[in-house]
């Protein structure tokens, strides 16, 4: 979490470093949890779609962004994430909230396990912090869930800083 803390300090001093903060959070998650990928997705204004702001894939060390997932296409996922504020899916292909991603997202990317946490601003969802594990099923531990929850709190601070700055 040290990389994320340092990036949060830099972000507080200069809000133009938001992309650096997102990258640091994603890298810290992958390193600490041992997942293949980590990403940050922002909800749109009406909360019926999320768009990736930063996705780190440790398999090749790349960052990407810009993918949008819509509630119209994945209603069971959006229902679960808004209702439960987290999804713990070791076997994502067969989990009721995530099986909708199998053919279009999981299979092409070899994603086997998913761990997601919602970031709230007040009582409204603003973002999703996501861990994905590829190749083999990963049984998420309580420590993994707790760590992602802590990172979601760090990310939540960025929205407070942005609100004060903007």
TrEMBL record:
InterPro entries: GAF, GAF-like_dom_sf. It comes from the Bacteria. Pfam families: GAF. Residues 18-157 form the GAF domain. This is GAF domain-containing protein. It comes from Niveispirillum lacus.
């Amino acid at each position: 979490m040290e990389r994320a803390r340092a990036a949060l300090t830099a972000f507080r001093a200069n809000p133009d470093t938001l992309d650096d903060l997102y990258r640091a959070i994603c890298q810290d998650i992958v390193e600490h949890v041992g997942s293949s990928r980590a990403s940050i997705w922002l909800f749109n204004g009406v909360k019926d779609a999320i768009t990736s702001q930063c996705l780190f894939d440790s398999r090749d060390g790349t960052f990407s962004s810009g993918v949008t997932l819509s509630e119209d296409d994945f209603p069971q996922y959006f229902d679960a994430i808004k209702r439960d504020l987290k999804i713990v899916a070791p076997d994502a292909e067969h989990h009721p909230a995530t099986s909708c991603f199998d053919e279009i997202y999981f299979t092409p990317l070899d994603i086997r396990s998913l761990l997601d946490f919602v970031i709230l601003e007040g009582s409204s969802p603003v973002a999703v912090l996501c861990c994905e594990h590829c190749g083999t099923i990963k049984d998420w531990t309580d420590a993994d869930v707790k760590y992602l929850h802590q990172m979601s709190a760090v990310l939540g601070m960025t929205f407070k800083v942005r609100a004060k700055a903007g």
